[in-house]
Design a protein that fits this description.
alpha+beta; Jelly Rolls; Immunoglobulin-like; eight-stranded parallel beta barrel; six-stranded antiparallel beta sheet; globular; binds alpha-D-glucopyranuronic acid
Length: 619
């Protein structure tokens, strides 16, 4: 192994040893679980609401008794036939059905504002495990906390609505009629992440796919492959299982003639790198080239489709594959087009959203706000050629002084990075959105920034910050005045002059922005418009006329910001937002979309599209 590889391997190997001390002990990642043997558990489930958590505790808060524990491994009807005097106040097998994954808002409109405990249950048969094989339950996302029971036994819990989790069930699984019960509690917690007050629908429920996953005894749990800044294809492979240490691993990219091999260290980790061949076609929005990467160890074989590119900053420029780039973007929530979205992202709904960015707006960038989106979105972005800003929901007023809250945020960040760091589309990890400056907040976010650097030195770190506004000699001067800025790679400003201010729209173009020594992006600006509401005479807020002029004037202002390197206006489409209750214009929706909930383009859509087309032509 050459000196360079030794250095790289040494650094990352040290990290693997340091990870536990950093609180970054690698939990189960189960990368590419969707391609592994097992059982798809999406589909028809039974559900039963439990607003007073009767399934978890008795009337004096003692343990829940028989006849209340929704997760007991029983057929209630059969039991009560055998014991007529038995009292059961639930019966999951005869409760209503729903098709998962789907927020429970989709099961029944009366559940829109339900925040509490919901029980889900289904039965399934499992393939017989061969000797040594292991079985895991994997959930891509459950919002907000999950208690999981298999065949009447508690097998795991999870907090956090936007990152995957898995639990081993090798010893609990049976050949047939497995009873899987999940208690989902959407109640927002004062010390949770996100905090209880946000500007989006909470969407309680099992909102992404889930499956039973079967693996060999020792398997590839994570395989991170990327192009390093010094032109090497680097691989970090982590095994899980009794023979993870000192085990032979091979990594192959057939189309490039790349083959890496080596033995894992005492932690079950292999780090290897090789100079990238000249035939490599680097990934970019224009050429979203993906390569099949095969990772093998013993009988285990995993594949992933990975793009290879570099992203870095130089002064105030963002460099993609060494060339300056302007991020022509838009923000998105995880919510599909339609009158009644249920936060159910499929490949089709992801393509419908992202093609409006790529083909509709001529964009090359999306801010997936304000939490890790479905992995489907980032895989489609990889294929389509869209750069991605990925973020965790450290949003507004988080309990920054609370160690539990920090641990939650750190875990979400690590899970997000471990799930997605093979996605070439992701260039930015964001650690916060519009958080008020304080010493505890700074410490909290500094830790998260350090964690990103420890987990992924191949991407940039950012955070959406609130702006600083001054008037100098009658001239409005905008800027960022946040201690976080010195630790970020890209400075991001949420700026709403003209919407959340009394500024006349005509005053916007004259507003100036202080130059920054790092790249700056406008991570948000926007104005509401109810699709179809026009008001040419008064051009009131919430009219399409106002929104169109707001975009024209704000973009004119943006063009004068000296170190602006990208924008992701708020937001692609209207989205459900319980704080927004104007009876005519909002009805529980945030109307800053350039598209209506069903995808009707508003006039401002074309203002942004023309702006991006002009930027694209000027490249
Ligand atoms: C804020 C916030 C968004 C919110 C938006 C708005 O900046 O980041 O989550 O929806 O502005 O007020 O519409």
């Amino acid at each position: 192994m050459g000196m360079a590889k030794k250095t790289l391997a040494g650094a990352i190997g040290a990290l693997a040893l340091l990870a536990p001390a950093l609180g970054l002990t690698a939990p189960l990642t189960l990368t590419r679980a969707d391609t592994r043997a097992g059982v798809d558990l999406s589909g028809t489930w039974r559900y039963s609401v439990d607003p007073y958590r009767d399934g978890l505790a008795g009337f004096h808060r003692g343990p829940a008794g028989e006849g209340h524990r929704r997760y007991d491994d029983v057929d209630v009807d059969a039991v009560t036939r055998a014991k007529p005097n038995a009292l059961y106040e639930y019966d999951m097998d005869r409760s209503p059905t729903a098709t998962l994954p789907q927020g429970w808002i989709g099961h029944d409109p009366t559940l829109r504002y339900y925040q509490g405990l919901m029980w889900y249950q289904r039965r399934f048969d499992a393939p017989a495990l061969k000797p040594g094989q292991r079985a895991f339950l994997r959930f891509e996302a459950v919002n907000y906390t999950a208690k999981v029971y298999l065949n009447g036994k508690a097998v795991g819990e999870h907090e956090g609505g936007f990152t995957p989790f898995s639990m081993e069930v090798t010893d609990t699984l049976r050949a047939s009629n497995n009873q899987l019960t999940v208690g989902v509690d959407s109640t927002p917690l004062a010390d949770g992440v996100p905090p209880p007050v946000t500007d989006w629908e909470n969407y309680g429920g099992i909102t992404r796919p889930m499956r039973l996953v079967i693996t060999p005894a020792t398997f590839v749990d994570e395989a991170w492959v990327r192009l390093s800044k010094d032109g090497k294809i680097a691989a970090t492979i982590r095994l899980n299982g009794p023979e993870a240490a000192g085990r032979e691993v091979r990594v192959r990219i057939g189309e490039l003639g790349v083959a890496l091999a080596g033995r894992t260290d005492a932690n079950g980790v292999l780090n290897a790198a090789v100079a990238a061949p000249r035939s490599l076609v680097r990934w970019s929005p224009e050429t979203p080239r993906l390569y099949d990467v095969v990772v093998e160890t013993g009988e285990d074989r995993l594949t992933d489709r990975i793009g290879l590119r570099t992203i870095e900053t130089r002064g105030s420029e963002i460099l993609l594959n060494g060339k300056p780039i302007f991020l022509r973007g838009i923000s998105l929530h995880e919510e599909e087009f339609g009158e009644n979205p249920t936060r159910t992202i499929t490949e089709a709904s992801a393509r419908a959203l992202l093609s409006e960015v790529k083909q509709g707006l001529h964009g090359n960038f999306v801010r997936l706000a304000h939490y890790p989106h479905s992995e489907i979105m980032t895989r489609v972005a990889d294929e389509m050629g869209l750069l991605v800003w990925s973020e965790i929901p450290v949003y507004w007023l988080v309990d920054f002084d609370n160690p539990r809250t920090l641990a939650l945020a750190r875990g979400m960040l690590a899970d997000n990075i471990r799930r997605d760091r093979n996605r070439a589309s992701i260039i930015l990890w964001s650690v916060a959105n519009e958080t008020p400056i304080s010493a505890p907040r700074n410490r909290f976010l500094y830790q998260l920034i350090d964690d990103v650097r420890a987990l992924d030195d191949s991407r940039l770190v950012t955070a959406a910050l609130l702006t600083d506004r001054k008037t100098v000699d009658g001239q409005v001067v905008m800027g960022l005045n946040d201690p976080l800025a010195e630790r970020l790679d890209v400075l991001a400003a949420n700026t709403y002059n003209g919407w959340y201010s009394n500024d006349a729209l005509d005053a916007l173009p004259a507003m100036t922005w202080r130059a920054t020594d790092k790249p700056m992006v406008f991570s948000e600006f926007g104005a509401d418009a109810l699709a179809g509401f026009t008001d040419p005479a008064l051009r009131r807020k919430f009219s399409e006329d106002f929104q169109k002029t707001y975009y024209e004037k704000t973009l004119a202002m943006a063009d004068k910001a000296p170190t602006l390197r990208g924008i992701s206006p708020w937001i692609l489409k209207d989205f459900r937002a319980p704080r927004r209750q104007h009876p005519i214009y909002q009805q529980g929706w945030n109307r800053k979309g350039l598209l209506s909930p069903t995808g009707r383009r508003k006039p401002a859509f074309y203002v942004l599209r023309d702006y991006f087309k002009a930027r694209e032509a000027a490249r």
